[in-house]
Amino acid sequence: MPLFDSEFLKKLEYLSLVSKRVFRGSLLAQRRTMQLGTGVEFADHREYTPGDDFRYLDWNLYARHDELLLKRFQEEEDLHVYFLLDASRSMAFGDPPKFDFARRVGAALAYIALADLDRIAVTAFAADVAADFPLTRGKDRILSLLKFLENLEPRGEDTNLERVATGFVHRDQRRGLVVVLSDLYDPAGFERGLDILRHRRYEPHVVQIHDRYEREPADMLGDVEMWDVESGTSRKVTVTEKNLRQYRALFDDFQDKVQGYCTRHALGCTRTSTEVTFDELILRMMRTAGAVR
Amino acid sequence: MNLISPFALWWLLLAVPVVVFYVLKIRLKRVPVSTVIFWRQIFDEKKPRSLWQRLRHLVSLLVQLALLAMLVAALAEPFFSWEAAGARRVVLVVDNSASMAATDVAPSRLERAKEEAAAVIRGLRPRDELAIVAVSPQPRVVCGLTGHHRTLLDALAGIPQTDGPSPLAAAAAVARRLAADTDGGGKEPQVVVVTDGCGEAAPAAADVRVVAVGEKVGNVGITRFQARRSTLDPIGYEVLIEVANQSDDPTGDFRLVLKLNDHPLDVVPLNLPPNGKWSKTIDSTTADGGRLTAELVVKGEKGDAPYPDALAADNTAVAVLPKREPMPVHLHSPAGNWFLENVLRANPLVNLTVGKQLADAPPPGAVVVYHREVPKTLPPGNVLVIDPANGCDLWAVGDKLANPIVTQQDKDSPVMAHVRLDNVLMPEAHKLTFTPAAGKPRVLAGVVTGDPVFAQIDRPSGPVVVLTVDLDKGELPFRTAFPILATNALALFAGGAGELREAVATGATADVNLPATGQAFELVSPDGSVRKLPAGAAKATAGPFDRCGVWAVTADGKPIEEVAVNLMNRAESDLRPTAPEAPPATAADAGLTSGLLGRPVWWYLTAAGFLLVALEWYLYQRRWIS
User: Fold this and answer.
1) Which residues of A are less than 8 Å from B617 in CB distance?
2) Mean pLDDT across A176-184
3) Which domains are assigned to chain B?
4) Would the pLDDT of B418 be above 60?
5) Does ipTM exceed 0.90?
């Protein structure tokens, strides 16, 4: 079964319709740059200097005060939306795999952005950048994007968000919204990577994905050889009920930690299980943003 | 220590797959996890694996091998030599007589006896053997010698409650023969009698142990109930009833209700003193017959309620009254005799026709009574001849006997039942000389000279009864013997038809005449169970009867004869034990149960195996072993 079938595309269209305008105002907020230019919204005046375009002279003011002032307008710029898609092996875990879920969510958000004439770029990462979909614009680019996503595979080893973020912010690109689609199972901690994005004036939005069997591990009691799908290492342990209780507590603490970090730094945060469908998640995000009721 | 089944040790080969599975098992199950971040926090905080943790897999294997060893050893059935030397051969005698149905101990004495007997069975030591003998109605081996508990318990459960007597002495004798060491096994014989001590006492002997059940309780019951035909009235009957209070307390008010075919016949209010009894003979009549029942009742909230004592079997009794069919009788008396004619006419069963000419043909199948004039050749069928004046093919008439005095009477003949002729004046009775055609007549009454005055000749074509007394000159017509004699003669001619069969006591047998029809005959008990009777026999013995009520002999499902069976056993009705000293109350008190320590070695091995399994499960649940 293809990851992005016609049903998926129908849902994208639907989501695009319900998100129009209002959704953009919050999640994919329409940003105005401080750069003054050829926009239509008046900003202020400045004195005329030779060489300025006469079309922007405020002739009314000249007639009234005999002073040459030039009208300045705030220039509207396209929103740049960057998707950081975790393609580490841990994302292949779950049923359905978290990676599939993340790709669908990313594709949906990208479609909505493209439909609003925003620019999007997708970076798949694990320990480092694994693949890039360059900055693009226009709804007609969605098929290319879907093809790119479909060809991705979760093959990366240990997630290293800090390294990825460092490389990402050093790119010659405009600031914008960074949607991080990941389980955030970074052995070094996810905070450092998000900190780098924040400090470089990107606006991270975290979509943290987990599988229900990560919350409630099945068939784990007893002597088991625990195999880390991300690092490929294994470890023989005896799991007791007490261990399971401890595990659940730690997992919940981690979830709370993600939420707490985002709240503390006023970042958008969406935590979800793969049990919900991607369109339900998008709608939930819209409701959170006030886009739909 | 020896093994009964050493070949079971081959099962030890199962240790091979156990070890193989163990080896496979320690190749741990591989469980993928998306991250070990959280697990690392958990397990890295734990101390290094202790020596126990390293050994616990091995302990698990050892536990399983120990379990296998125990189970295999149990299958091999090991036993000690002292077990074989101390083995017993026990015969359980279980009293299932009528008194064991008493409900003074719930649910009944028999059920309590079975519980005690089951305790003895469960207390058997490994090499012991046990057999079970049921007492009533006759001693019967219900299970031969065996040590298999399930077989013994099943046989014990199958012992039925009967209403029969308790022949404990005979049962103990059977048990002794069964327990006798005939095969030289050296087993100690022992007889255990489980009884309530009512009825026949268990024999006192060193090898007989008695386990008592039940308590000393009072009981009121019908101890006698017997019906017979009236000697005077052919359709009348007399019922002898006896009710006994076998208690040290008075009974209070209760009633005896007598019913014929469920229609009340008589109600007798009773109130008996301690150990008192009441008896009475009640007369009544019926030509149609039916079932006559007597029942002890008390006044209940909604009518009569059964008498509330511990034993119900003796609170009712039953008798069967057969229907009396009318009998055609033809009297030939040229001169007539008022007494003879009216004696016959007074019998309600007789359809009398009178003729004065020998040529008058009697009705078909009728009893022909000749008075004075007798044909030269007597007709076939039933013939009664009174005062023959002339001879015939069976006798010649001789001189008259002047004053004959009856000196001999055949008391065994039904014709002479309740008849005494020794003090009756019978002048001018004729002297008869029987011809060879008469064969050897049965003299019913003879005079001092040896001449018969009353005789019965059994011909192939029918019986002939002849009385030589002149009715006009003697005093016989004025005596009660005359109508009784006439009634008896007619009853003889009627054969067994309509005759009343006495009720029999439980445990007894009854002879039953079977018609030569070639059919298969069955004996149907009151509860509907069926027993086959021998085919082709003219007479069969039914019983011994083990239930109270009406038993029926049937052919193709239709009853041909019924037998009333009642308890009528004062000893069984008396629920107070007769033993002079109270025997041990329970099997445990009698030292007949070996308790937990008396079990075979394999039982302990199996129990230890289960304990080991439980222990392993406990340790496994806590991950102390794997």
Assistant:
1) none
2) 91
3) 2-77+603-621 (no CATH), 86-216+577-599 (3.40.50.410), 219-321+569-573 (2.60.40.10), 327-494 (3.40.50.880)
4) yes
5) no
